[in-house]
C-alpha cells in the first residue's frame, strides 16, 4: 500500500485531481467528507459537540448548524480547540478504518487541505502538491466560486504559501493550464504512484 498526502491551496484544483485519481483506481480518504460524516445525526460525534456547545448548534432537523458553530469557535481559540479535540480523533480513526480496508497494493490518497499548515507530511509515503500561480487561483475563485477578489486573497493568505507547500512536495501537479494538460500530468503522476505501490 502506498499512502499519499494530497494537498494544494484554495483554487489550485486539488478536488479535481482527487476526482481524477479516484477515476484511475485510487482509494480516496477525504478529511473534509469524513469531518462531516463524524458529526452526522445519530453519531457519537454530534452528541459530543452538542454536549460541549449546547443545542443552539443544531438545526431544527437535527443536523449540525455549521454557521452557528463557526460563529462560536472562530471567535474564541479555546472553543476551537475544544471542537478540534472532539472531531480530530474521530476523523483520524475513520481515515485509519478506510485505509485498513484498502487492498495491499492500493494507492491510498489522503485529501488533506491543511497538510502543510499542520505539518502532516511525515504521515505519508509521498506528498503530492497541486500547484497553480496565485493570480490563476484568484481568477478561479472569483470566476468559478463567485468570491470577491479581496475575500479570495484573504482566504489564500490564511493558508500556507506556495513555497511552503512546494517545500514538502515529493511530486508536483502543475494546474496552471487547462483540463487536458491537467489530465496528462495526472496520468504521469498516477503511473509513478501505481509503479511504487506495486513494488
Concise overview:
This protein has 199 residues and is of the alpha/beta class. It has helices spanning 14-23, 31-37, 44-53, 66-73, 77-100, 134-145, 149-157, 162-167, 179-198, and strands spanning 2-8, 27-30, 107-111, 126-131, 171-174.
What do you see in this structure?
With 199 residues, the protein is of the alpha/beta class. It is 53% helix and 13% strand. The chain is built from nine helices and five strands, in the order E-H-E-H-H-H-H-E-E-H-H-H-E-H. It has a five-stranded parallel sheet, sandwiched between helices. It starts with a strand and ends with a helix. The model has no long low-confidence stretch (mean pLDDT 94).
Topology:
Blueprint: E1 2-8, H1 14-23, E2 27-30, H2 31-37, H3 44-53, H4 66-73, H5 77-100, E3 107-111, E4 126-131, H6 134-145, H7 149-157, H8 162-167, E5 171-174, H9 179-198
Parallel strand pairs: 1-3, 1-4, 2-3, 4-5
What's the total helix number?
A: 9
On the 0 to 100 scale, the average pLDDT is 94
Helix-strand makeup class: alpha/beta
Approximately how much helix is present in the residues?
Answer: 40-55%
Described by its quaternary structure, the protein is single chain
Proportion of residues in β-strands: 5-15%
Number of strands: 5
Amino acid at each position: 500500500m502506498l499512502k499519499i498526502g494530497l494537498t494544494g491551496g484554495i483554487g489550485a484544483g486539488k478536488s479535481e485531481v482527487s476526482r481524477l485519481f479516484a477515476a484511475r483506481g485510487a482509494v480516496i480518504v477525504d478529511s473534509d467528507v469524513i469531518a462531516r460524516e463524524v458529526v452526522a445525526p445519530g453519531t457519537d460525534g454530534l452528541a459530543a459537540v452538542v454536549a460541549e456547545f449546547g443545542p443552539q448548534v443544531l438545526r431544527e432537523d437535527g443536523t449540525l448548524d455549521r454557521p452557528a458553530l463557526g460563529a462560536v469557535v472562530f471567535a474564541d481559540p479555546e472553543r476551537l480547540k475544544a471542537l478540534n479535540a472532539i472531531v480530530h480523533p474521530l476523523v483520524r480513526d475513520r481515515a485509519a478504518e478506510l485505509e485498513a480496508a484498502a487492498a495491499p497494493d492500493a494507492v491510498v490518497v489522503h485529501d488533506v487541505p491543511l497538510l502543510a499548515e499542520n505539518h502532516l507530511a511525515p504521515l505519508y509515503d509521498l506528498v503530492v502538491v497541486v500547484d497553480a500561480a496565485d493570480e490563476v487561483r484568484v481568477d478561479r475563485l472569483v470566476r468559478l466560486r463567485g468570491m470577491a477578489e479581496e475575500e479570495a486573497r484573504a482566504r489564500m493568505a490564511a493558508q500556507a504559501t506556495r513555497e511552503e507547500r512546494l517545500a514538502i512536495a515529493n511530486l508536483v501537479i502543475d494546474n496552471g493550464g487547462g483540463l487536458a494538460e491537467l489530465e496528462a500530468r495526472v496520468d504521469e503522476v498516477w503511473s509513478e504512484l501505481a509503479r511504487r505501490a506495486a513494488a
